[in-house]
């Protein structure tokens, strides 16, 4: 059975991507300092998932050099919209291979990076990932409003598949 936190992550992902419906490639690359552009935001979340659920958990990388383009602490960029959407789809599919295996016991273990266990256990990393999606979704909506987009969703979407 899928762990409820994984279900919540998938819901956060779906709401995140729903927030980008109708964004043009041109608008996806527009920036309003100090905010990053929308294409960067999608790549940035893919980068976090790749680091945690693909690199640390599975010891592999599915989108090489993603960190250099959209990683925390890297110079600002306005990456290609289609490339970032494709990277996000590739990474989340790979991440799901690990996330589908999570149990309450595994959530209390610490993933290892460069020989060192992470300070936060896998469950806390999963919460961090979920909250990261919501943080950047709010930022993306603000950007879309600055871009003049209208008809944006005004509230969290249908929760039929994530009921308590």
Salient structural properties:
164 residues, mainly alpha, Four Helix Bundle (Hemerythrin (Met), subunit A), 2 strands, 54% helix, globular
What does this 3D model show about the protein?
This protein is mainly α and 164 residues long. It has a single domain, classed as Up-down Bundle (Four Helix Bundle (Hemerythrin (Met), subunit A)), CATH 1.20.120.450. Helices cover 54% and strands 2% of the residues. It contains 6 helices and 2 strands. A hairpin with a 2-residue loop joins strand 1 and strand 2. Helix 1 (4-18) runs parallel beside helix 6. The protein starts with a helix and ends in an 18-residue tail after the last helix. The mean pLDDT is 94.
What's the gist of this structure?
This protein is mainly α. It is 54% helix and 2% strand.
List the helices and strands and how they pair.
Elements: H1 4-18, H2 25-28, H3 38-58, H4 66-70, H5 81-99, E1 112-113, E2 116-117, H6 122-146
Antiparallel strand pairs: 1-2
Helix pairs in contact: 1-6, 3-5, 3-6
Number of domains: 1
The CATH superfamily is: dinb family like domain
Instruction: Output the strand order for the largest sheet.
Output: 1-2
Mean pLDDT: 94
- For the termini, the CA-CA separation is 15 Å
Rg of Cα set:
16 Å
Number of helices: 6
Coarse shape: globular
Q: What is the tally of beta strands?
A: 2
**CATH classification class:** Mainly Alpha
The secondary structure category is mainly alpha
